[in-house]
Amino acid sequence: MSESKLAAILKGRKSQPHQLIEVLQDVQSREGYISPSSMRDVSEALGVPLTEVYSVASFYKAFSLNPRGKNILTVCTGTACHVRGAKMVLNQATGQLGVAPSEMTQDGLFTIEQVNCLGACALGPVVTENGSSYHHMNARKVRKLIHKLSTASTEGNLNEQDQHHQ
Amino acid sequence: MNKINTINDLGTLREKLQSYRKSFRKTLILCNGTGCQASRSQDLIGSIQTELVKQGFATDILVRATGCHGFCEQGPILVVEPDNTFYCHVTPDDAEEIVRKTVAKGELIERLLYTDPVSGKTIPRESDIPFYKAQDRQLLAQNRQVDPCNIEDYIAIGGYSALAKVLSGISQKSVIAEIKRSELRGRGGAGFPTGRKWEQCSDAPGDEKYVICNADEGDPGAYMDRSVLEGNPHLVLEGMIIGAWAVNAWQGYVYVRNEYPLAVKHIRTAIEQAREMGILGENIFGTPFSFDVEVARGGGAFVCGESTALMASLEGKVGEPHPKDVHSVVDGLWHKPTVLNNVETWANVPVIMQNGAAWFAGKGSKNSKGTKILALTGHIKNTGLVEVPMGTTLETVVFTIGGGSPGKAVRAVQTGGPSGGCLPLDKLYLPLDFDALAEAGSMVGSGGIVVMDEDTCMVDVAKYFLTFLQDESCGKCVPCRLGIDRMLELVTGIAEGNGKPEDIDLLEDLAWTVSETSLCALGKTAANPVLSTLRYFRDEYDTHIHEKKCPAGVCQALITYWVDPETCTGCGVCLKECPHSAVKGEKKQPHEIDLALCEKCGICKSSCKFDAIQVR
Q1: What single-letter DSSP state applies at residue B390?
Q2: How far apart are CA B428 and CA B537, in angstroms?
Q3: What is the pTM of this model?
Q4: Reduced to 3 states, what is the DSSP secondary structure of residue B565?
Q5: Are B432 and B263 in contact (CB under 8 A)?
Q6: Quick check: A160 pLDDT over 80?
Q7: Interface touch A59/B607, C-beta < 8 Å
Q8: Burial status of residue B475 (CB atoms within 10 A of its CB: 0-12, 13-18, 19 or more)
Q9: 3-state helix, strand, coil in chain B (%, to 5)
């Protein structure tokens, strides 16, 4: 992480060990994951031993220690979504992409995350993707969504490459 | 925003705000909670505002974007006051017509009205809808009266007057006595008497004390705390300030789930606004009392709902619970006396101080007073948030308010989240009461009620909760870490058709050991889903073990998909949709599923318009 980004996150929090989780939350949301070098930086700035930073970062679900895909699909598997078939949605998504939950696809396009409840139980099964919510999902709909996103992403990459060549 | 320097200033400001509100001809109340936002309520609000300007009503109509109204199934929701007109499933395209007809001329738009699923008739007024009518919405009703990001809205409806009353001369001891008299019990799950907790903290030695609001609502299928914090953050803050005054705390924390971005945003805005107005910070309302609140975002660990784990997390550490030899009211956050209450508990405090303990204790049952907010979800017609007096029967909640399940018959009701249990249909006469539900092997818990119909497999439900708890166990104590693991292993075996008759005894033995010997409440209650399903749905375990069948058609290893040749029209949709090329057949001829290729993903079933694909 760049020095300026880290400085912005740490503003007013330096040498305050109890701010560790809050700081890691911000690193996670800006970087998408917590890298070993971020952990070292945070450890130094807050005065928390690196082993403790690692134990906190690996304990909480909110933190990912590996890079995540361009599209993050979060499948809600709360009880209300479960009884309406969330498991089939999750199985479809991971099966279709050939990854385990929280694992990034080889092309870097997708990560399927699982969350215990988003509190939108009336609309379940719910899937969120880069800030948009999809409700009343089933295996068929998630299959189409992944297909749509992967086509859009591949085309997007091609466009970026085109622009690069020009 | 001007600072409120004296208690009298608050009253003057309230009168001014109320007359401003009265100057509008109509108020359009739009629900903008998480549920309605997922149904595009933000676009709707934009379109309504544009239309009001376009049609010349920008100055005499007030638009209020509020938190959750509770009737999430019908979102986005729009209520027009003072007529109390209720529109549901409103889209941005309806905005023009709403302004042209309802706003301008008071005409009703029939297609946007709510249709009662029982009578089939439309109901124009919100207060006549059965879902709302059978409730007693002491806390939730406030959500629709305030824009959560506007402190003035809260003040206009009488907000912070309970605090003003307390600070104008009610002693700390009298506040605690009032809360004790109200018999308020913690809404987070354990049901500990709130007044007693405050008294113990107040009596504990030391000058440095803390109050904490637990908004780490981890129970899957429960979202009442989110809706209160998101929809009416000042109510929670007011409760915390009163609590801080009573126990003499100088700092408070709101520990909130990071999965609730809107709640985090709204409570942060509320704190800033309260500081600006002198309701938080040094010398509140010009009195010698000072108190401030900070927000801490949770890291997504279920165990952090446990008080000692939550406090460890607030200190920036791994969220592991500690033994409770000394209670946190004496040795809590940073080893100082601490009061930790749940969102809904704090929200009840201003209401009690305003209306009196006797009023609160007048509602509810013998040992459970006041109202309780429930999240009614699952296979139910009216999904949403429900607030009823304690002691209301589950039957009233599920059938009168919830309208029963939409398809198949209701089979079980799961209460209390992963620490609770499943109750069968013949137990729904039970009242919503801390003690009555505990006796039946479940619990009120935080108030999640998941309705399950005949398509739900109880072995699968037990497996679901064990998977959840295994994942969420912090791993500190052996009984919880290994016991849940072994229970899950056994239940998974049963669900996959590898169960042995002796597994049931072993499960019961393990469940007993885990609940008796675990360190914290997560482990102590972890066996409840297994024990309650075994107690009430034993035959279902037996069918899985002896006949290797899943009667509800859920457990993947025990089911097969097949096409009913009588109903199949040979339309070819499933054949085209199947990602595994497992469906075969000629056009207009009944199709067949090749079981060797079928992955049981269910896509064929959900794509069939004729209900021809069955599970057995």
Answers
A1: T
A2: 15
A3: 0.92
A4: coil
A5: no
A6: no
A7: no
A8: exposed
A9: 45, 15, 40
**B288: buried, middle or exposed (CB in 10 Å: 19+, 13-18, 0-12)?**
exposed
**B114, containing H or E segment:** strand B114-115
Give bridge partners of residue A165 from the DSSP assignment. Answer: none
Q: How far is CA B369 from the centre of its chain?
A: 19
Mark yes or no for CB contact B316/A48 under 8 Å. Answer: yes
Q: In the structure encoding, which two tokens stand for residue A92, read together?
A: 């479809």
- Residues B108-129 as b/e (b if ≥16 CB within 10 A, e otherwise) read ebeebbbeeeeeeeebbebeeb
- In angstroms, the separation between the Cα of residue A166 and the nearest Cα of chain B is 38
Residue B34 exposure: Cα atoms within 13 Å on the Cβ side: 29
Whether the CB-CB separation of B263 and B229 falls below 8 Å is answered with yes
DSSP B466-490: HHHHHHH--S-SHHHHHHHHHHHHH
Cα of first residue to Cα of last residue in chain B, in angstroms, is: 65
Chain A, 11 to 50: residues with Cβ < 8 Å from chain B are 17-22, 24-25, 48
Per-residue pLDDT at A163 exceeds 80: no
Please give the ipTM for the structure prediction.
Answer: 0.87
pLDDT tens digits, A131-144: 788 989 999 999 99
Q: What is the pLDDT of residue A161?
A: 44
Cα(B188)–Cα(B282) distance, integer angstroms: 30
- The verdict on A96 touching B (C-beta cutoff 8 Å) is yes
Phi then psi for A127, rounded to 5 degrees? -130, 135
Q: Among the residues of A60-138, which ranges form H helices?
A: 79-83, 86-97
- Element housing B213 (H / E): strand B210-215
Instruction: Output phi, psi for B53, to 5 deg.
Output: -65, -50
Is A122 close to B35, i.e. CB distance below 8 A?
yes
Q: Is B97 left (phi over 0), alpha (psi -120 to 50) or beta?
A: alpha
- For chain B, how long is the longest CA-to-CA vector? 85
Distance CA B393, CA B397 (A): 7
Q: Is A145 on the interface with B (CB under 8 A)?
A: no
Contact B169/A at CB under 8 A: no
| Chain A interface, best mutation among B601, B609, B613, by max A CB count within 10 A | B601
Chain B residues closer than 8 Å to A24 by CB: 299
How far is A61 from A35, CA to CA, in rounded Å? Answer: 15
Strand partners, B85: B80, B125
Buried b (16+ CB within 10 A) or exposed e, B311-320: bbbbbbbbbb
Residue B100 scores a pLDDT above 70: yes
Cβ within 8 Å of A, B 229-268: 258-260
Contacts (Cβ under 8 Å, ≥6 apart) of A72: A110, A111, A113, A129, A130
Q: What is the rounded end-to-end Cα distance, in angstroms, of chain A?
A: 30
What does the pLDDT average to over B25-50? 92
CA distance B615 to B613: 7
Q: CB of A117 within 8 Å of any CB in chain B?
A: yes
Nearest to B603 among A24, A83, A140 (CB): A140
And the tokens for B523?
A: 């482990």
Q: How far apart are CA B229 and CA B220, in angstroms?
A: 17
Compute the distance between CA of residue B242 and CA of residue B165 in angstroms, rounded to an integer. 10
The greatest distance separating any two alpha carbons of chain A, rounded to the nearest whole angstrom, comes to: 52
Please name which of B397, B345, B400, B391 lies closest in space to residue B376, comparing C-alpha atoms: B397
For residue B283, CA distances in Å to B4, B207, B236, B277, B509 come to 11, 18, 20, 11, 57
Mode of pairing for the β-strands spanning A71-76 and A110-115: parallel
The predicted pLDDT at position B445 comes to: 86
